[in-house]
Please model this.
Amino acid sequence: MSRPRILIVGAGFAGYRTARTLARLTRHRADITLLNPTDYFLYLPLLPQVAMGVLDPRRVAVSLPGTLRRVRLVLGEAGGIDLDARTVRYTDPEGREGTLGYDRLVLAVGSVNKLLPIPGVAEHAHGFRGLPEALYLRDHVTRQIELAAAADDPGRCSARCTFVVVGAGYTGTEVAAQGQQFTDELVRTQPLRHGMRPRWLLLDVAARVLPELDERLSRSAERVLRRRGVDVRMGTSVKEATHEGVLLTDGEFVDTRTLVWCVGVRPDPLMESLGRPLERGRLLVDPYLQVPGHADVFACGDGAAVPDLDKPGRYTPMTAQHAWRQGRVCARNVAASLGIGSRRAYRHRDLGFVVDLGGTQAAADPLGIPLSGPPAAAVTRGYHLAAMPGNRVRVAADWLLDAVLPRQAVQLGLVRSWSVPLESASPELARVPGAPGTTPPSAAAPLPTPPDERHGTQEDS
Amino acid sequence: MSRPRILIVGAGFAGYRTARTLARLTRHRADITLLNPTDYFLYLPLLPQVAMGVLDPRRVAVSLPGTLRRVRLVLGEAGGIDLDARTVRYTDPEGREGTLGYDRLVLAVGSVNKLLPIPGVAEHAHGFRGLPEALYLRDHVTRQIELAAAADDPGRCSARCTFVVVGAGYTGTEVAAQGQQFTDELVRTQPLRHGMRPRWLLLDVAARVLPELDERLSRSAERVLRRRGVDVRMGTSVKEATHEGVLLTDGEFVDTRTLVWCVGVRPDPLMESLGRPLERGRLLVDPYLQVPGHADVFACGDGAAVPDLDKPGRYTPMTAQHAWRQGRVCARNVAASLGIGSRRAYRHRDLGFVVDLGGTQAAADPLGIPLSGPPAAAVTRGYHLAAMPGNRVRVAADWLLDAVLPRQAVQLGLVRSWSVPLESASPELARVPGAPGTTPPSAAAPLPTPPDERHGTQEDS
Model:
């Protein structure tokens, strides 16, 4: 018999771990193929540090071919999946179609930005799920401060140095906390008009920041945010977004050029196309991560609804921690289905959470022990270094340098607003004209200038 | 009297130094404005290290607002210059026009890629003058190796891992030397078919590499290149470039997907539009860097033809070293024209040259003392650290890490082939659809797939 073909779709936490573990378990007894739009695994939890200039983008991008021996990488985005014919169609980076067959399929397609039906948000907000978005935000924030420093009109200056973050979960809280630090540092070399200071707003409909954490940690994180100057508005969200700013649900209109959307994620819409039972958009699997009725199909990570064995009737939440650990179980069970080792059910124990608030501030509850301040910051950074599958020394070196040197801030201008739309099934890629799924701007009908770039000169500001 | 307005066009070596020195000399007695398409000064000599993944792009980009106090930055590209009306028109990053007036004008517009009338080169080659081009090349080389490693067909594999560099001056020699190192390192984790190895060709019509250096150094550099595996072909150039490869002047056809164009530079075409006397495209100035007949206009750097006082009838060559030192003299003379200090003529003494061949290899002749091997490498890196106006510690840290860690190699996919055309008056910017001076790809007529991306999947290779 020829070697069985294992196809893994997606190289996020779940897919990367599945591929790495399977390569180790099967040795040369199976052909492992990994289908992913990029040639790197993105360590998402550190994305806010890329956006705020602490880390360079390559630091959080771990090379797939460089770290996954015995795994064949196919660059492309999965399209139609045919569970009966056992094929997956995909579109390569140049827009051409290809098809891959399989004997075992692992769906680890992850999640994308969650949208809410709020007028103007899809046009004016940017999400936070991939490197292009993070680099866009880094450029954008730098540009706003440079333009604010050069602005003569107080109103325009104030709008440019006001930044609105919606969603006070892990990502939004980190973005606001680290964003305030970043912009404060920028204005030290480029002072604003007398008395003006960059202002970050953090909004959430929840009653407190980091609602997933215990209340004590949540309060201490909020204290750090407020002390730093972040305008924390709980119980508040956005009613409408326009070119000029955002209308809040409490009736206030905030002049701003920046709306960062961190309200959470939803499963990759690819899951819907399977025609299999879903749970809130996630593909239902059994505790062995198998799709009922398809013994050759497995799913894990954000895109899979995995029963929580400790809480009957519930499913494991969409977190990197679960995805990472499900990947390992999934690999074991795929191998077991090929006669290598034995399968086991997915059971999790919460290891706790870490939230990096920038500098020496953080909130963490490792193994349930609530920590804040420098001890939490040490745990947080140690956790990330331990959890990253590569690039550790370089990340640690960047942190060291950031602690002693001024932050680097330049606009590289490589990612434009229109190439990182909020509504995207593939936030890991910057859109380019002519690429699949894009409505490219054409010469005849130039793209409308996005709001952040419309006022993009010193002359008018 | 109100404060005189000094306008500096261009923030390369000459313009940056002029701005920095003028800010120091004039204190608050003049308004200094710097017009530049980017908000950073690019330390060009280290660009090959960005392309080959040693340094991150921000390392060689020194923030203008962050390092130039008392200088107002206007982001834009200079267009029409009216010496009589004393105005400079410019186009901002969003394509809108603006006008700046001046009492003193400093033209430091630099140079762009030199083209030669060789069929196919403008379409298939990429230059090496800005960060977008360097990042494009980094992605491109990584992609070629990944595709070569996955290729079944020996011919395709070989074409993908063949890289042609034209021009054996400083830049081309560094690119070929460091490129061979980079790709050799990549194939250690992604082995090619049996017996295959990445192959870099270095071509030049000259008889030896680095013809500007003394012959002994030139020979020793060539030995390093050959020992490393670079195919050095002197007395040879490109006759034609096609999708499939390049036809050399010696009749050989080389299958390749990569043609790097380092044949040199030409003055920014803006100089021609002035209607003033030129010397090979460079604006003629007197030894005080003043434009004859326009006491209020100065020029320096690659775009200016500065008389070489030690070699009557000749002009100083287009090098960063001259530009940097002319910037200082220019600032003094502008200040002198405003009654601050006294003017002086530009006189240079060659400080020697440094060529970084990667790893511990280099060629240098500091103060005329020829060095090669590790001593030259130490001098080279020390020279760069001393010469950079910022980011030194971070560059040194990256070098340290690169010496002990495997090179990071991922495709970030942010710069596409069509956005960095060889023929460009502004290689410092990535072209975007709808931007000024661009023929954007449109939905109706999609851009032809560039040769390097045409074969961009594993399936067909």
In short: The longest strand of chain B covers residues 31-36. Chain B touches chain A through 68 residues (CB under 8 Å). Residues 49 and 271 of chain B are 30 Å apart (CA to CA). Residues 5-37+76-113+266-337 of chain B form a domain with the FAD/NAD(P)-binding domain fold (CATH 3.50.50.60).
